[in-house]
Design a protein that fits this description.
The complex is a heterodimer.
Chain A: H1 2-12, H2 16-25, H3 36-56, H4 59-64, H5 70-102, H6 115-136, H7 144-167, H8 169-176, H9 183-213
Helix pairs in contact in A: 1-5, 2-3, 2-5, 3-5, 3-7, 5-6, 5-9, 6-7, 6-9, 7-8
Chain B: E1 2-12, E2 17-26, E3 30-34, H1 41-48, E4 56-61, E5 64-65, H2 70-74, E6 77-81, H3 92-99, H4 108-117, H5 131-144, E7 149-153, H6 161-175, E8 181-186, H7 189-195, E9 198-203, E10 206-212, H8 213-218, E11 220-225, H9 230-233, E12 237-243, E13 246-252, E14 263-265, H10 269-283
The chains are: A mainly alpha, B alpha/beta.
InterPro entries (chain A): ABC2_memb-like
Organism (chain A): Paenibacillus glycanilyticus
Transmembrane segments (chain A): 16-42, 80-103, 115-136, 143-164, 184-205
Chain lengths: 217, 284
């Protein structure tokens, strides 16, 4: 499987998508912005372009001719997507930390980049993954509907959580009030977010794997 | 020993069916797999490579079932698809570096000797290679990982006669030591007249005949007769064409009565394909 991941990074994923996390991460430096948008650039740009490239280059047939199992093909692609997601989130976190130190007194109408916020971002990417993986691997080449539904699911989660945080005083306090200084609460949300991200991605991989076994190349 | 044994393989689609496809390729020989466009050649090749699930039947490569030993067998299979390009914007060097990691028996010395022999510049991009050079690159890859069975789908399509002849010579040389076998699908039958040992003919998803090349063509006769002689053989003809001099038609050799005063010759592979295609058209 390692060779398949290496294959994707050498010939499948354009170099630009390895630089993009730094460029989009730098958007975290805009004071008082909608910071969830930063991670959406991965969903809006990287994924559709990467999957379109895979289709154009006949990657499915190329990979199927190699001595690898279908499960490894799916596992490697999921790993590549997760690695890219982690790159995006890690750079966003780094720039988010700079943001907090640069603008300590800025009033954020939308979520500020504290630890709890990153937990929500992990859940958002988990939702994106479960929809994308399960739908894309019905055919392993039609990416339009899978990407649209996955983006829709992730955006719905982003809008809902933001709305709840603005409307509900308890949640508002966690993300805007005294809760932002409570490291235990913030860390708990981050860890819970990471665990949900892992769970949703693993479920997405399993569904993708089952569906891909039935795909005829 | 059999290099490839396709046993009663069937696969049904909504609009097309491969029905009980069977043929065998002996180790160290070239088999031409012929048929018109859409006859089922590529589907059969994909079934052999386990890229499509078989409804019934079995494919064995060097005595092992491909469905059960896919990874092991793909280590010794080399493929070239004439009309499909992979990662055409990548350099040969980059693509080879990716591919070679998947093969246990990869040999760099063999690879570079084939690059030199085929005059392939590894700094060139795949898109900069001519069709013939692309096939040669695939051959270099296959031979460098010790492939024993080469499955080539339309490798000579789109090549000029000189490049085709050059490639056919390479195929013959590869099988000469008896270790490598080639299954070579094409609709350019003249290529097979030059280099194939066996012919398998598929028409509308069914194997019409699979036999040694000379035996294959000798089992048919192409008749040239006058219009008034047509009724004497019409029922036995596979198909026929009328012209201003009379008719020409294809018949199984055993159905032809040499006592009839009709001119009969051994047909070419192309003529056999054409008359079988005409037969299909007559029943559509």
């Amino acid at each position: 499987m390692f060779n398949l991941i290496l294959k994707d990074f050498k010939i499948g994923v354009p170099r630009f998508f390895l630089i993009l996390p730094v460029l989009t991460g730098a958007l975290m430096l805009i004071p008082g912005w909608i910071y969830m948008v930063v991670l959406f650039y991965f969903c809006w740009i990287t994924i559709p372009n990467m999957l379109a490239g895979v289709r154009t280059q006949n990657d499915l047939m190329f990979t199927a001719l190699l001595p690898v199992t279908k499960s490894d093909i799916v596992k490697a692609k999921v790993s590549v997507i997760v690695i890219l997601e982690l790159l995006h989130i890690v750079f966003a976190i780094i720039f988010g930390m700079i943001n907090l130190s640069l603008y300590p007194d800025v009033v954020n109408y939308f979520f500020a980049p504290h630890m709890g916020f990153w937990g929500l971002c992990f859940v958002m990417l988990g939702i994106f993954n479960i929809f994308l993986l399960s739908l894309y691997y019905k055919t392993a080449y039609k990416y339009g509907v899978a990407t649209a539904v996955a983006i829709g699911g992730a955006m719905l989660f982003a809008v809902l959580t933001q709305w709840i945080a603005l409307q509900n005083s308890y949640v508002h306090d966690i993300f805007y009030g005294t809760g932002i200084d409570d490291t235990v609460v913030q860390l708990s949300i981050l860890i819970a977010g990471i665990l949900i991200f892992i769970a949703l991605t693993v479920i997405g991989y399993r569904m993708a794997n089952q569906r891909f076994l039935k795909v005829e190349i | 020993m059999l290099s490839l044994d396709v046993k009663q393989v069937s696969k049904k689609y909504d609009t097309f069916e491969l029905k009980e496809v069977s043929f065998q390729l002996e180790k160290g020989y070239i088999m031409g797999f012929i048929g018109a466009n859409g006859a089922g050649k590529t589907t059969t090749i994909k079934l052999i490579l386990n890229m499509i699930r078989i409804d019934s039947g079995e494919v064995q490569i060097l005595g092992k079932n491909i469905a059960e030993h896919e990874l092991e067998l793909k280590q010794i299979i080399g493929c070239a698809f004439g009309d499909v390009e992979f990662y055409s914007r990548s350099k040969i060097k980059t693509l080879t570096d990716v591919i070679k990691r998947f093969y246990k028996n990869w040999n760099d010395d063999t690879y570079y000797s084939y690059l030199r022999r085929f005059k392939l510049d590894e700094n060139k991009k795949i898109s900069q290679l001519s069709t013939g050079m692309k096939v040669k690159y695939n051959l270099a890859l296959a031979l460098s990982h010790g492939a024993k069975l080469l499955i080539l789908d339309e490798p000579t399509s789109g090549l000029d006669p000189v490049a085709r002849d050059n490639l056919l010579e390479i195929f013959q040389e590869l099988v000469s030591e008896g270790e490598i076998s080639i299954l070579f699908s094409t609709h350019i039958t003249t290529d097979l007249e030059k280099c194939a040992d066996f012919i398998t003919f598929i028409e509308n998803g069914r194997i019409v005949k699979s036999a040694e090349k000379e035996e294959f063509v000798a089992s048919y006769r192409l008749l040239n007769g006058k219009e008034n002689q047509l009724n004497e053989v019409k029922d036995k003809l596979i198909s026929y064409k009328k012209n201003s001099f009379g008719f020409t038609g294809l018949i199984h050799a055993e159905d032809f009565d040499p006592g009839l005063e009709i001119n009969a010759v051994i047909p070419s592979l192309e003529e056999i394909m054409i008359y079988f295609a005409k037969k299909e058209a007559m029943y559509v």
